[in-house]
């Protein structure tokens, strides 16, 4: 069940990342055309950078599910099968711990609990915490950077989901609880 949810989430991440890759290409092409015509659109560069950042985080999360992350296997290739399984489980645990830390960092950074305590009043939240995450605008687009940074939540959630699914689905690892 968990692996099916992880698989569906990864397919969504890949589809979104693919759309963002196309948008980066089109934005850069638009930038080239408008600059050559002498009337550059100054916000296009910033939007292309944000689209690429979102694409990268979504793709990195999906890579955890599909096992396409960069790996150096010189040591593990030399190990016997049993030791390779142990190392693979250890890697899954490390990925899961990293993802859980990312969720915790997002919780602390975005300060959702404190924002709720302030009645979702951004000014009161800023005065209480000195956290200006909800007030900082992007340079040229004029939207809140919080919308750009929200990809961190998606990455942390996806990495946690994929890390759990990989750990529970690996032969010899923890078995998924019965439902």
From TrEMBL:
Residues 25-169 form the Tripartite ATP-independent periplasmic transporters DctQ component domain. Keywords: Cell inner membrane, Cell membrane, Membrane, Transmembrane, Transmembrane helix, Transport. Belongs to the TRAP transporter small permease family. It comes from the Bacteria. It is a multi-pass membrane protein. This is TRAP transporter small permease protein. It comes from Roseibium algicola. The chain crosses the membrane at residues 48-75, 87-110, 146-168. It is found in: Cell inner membrane. The complex comprises the extracytoplasmic solute receptor protein and the two transmembrane proteins.
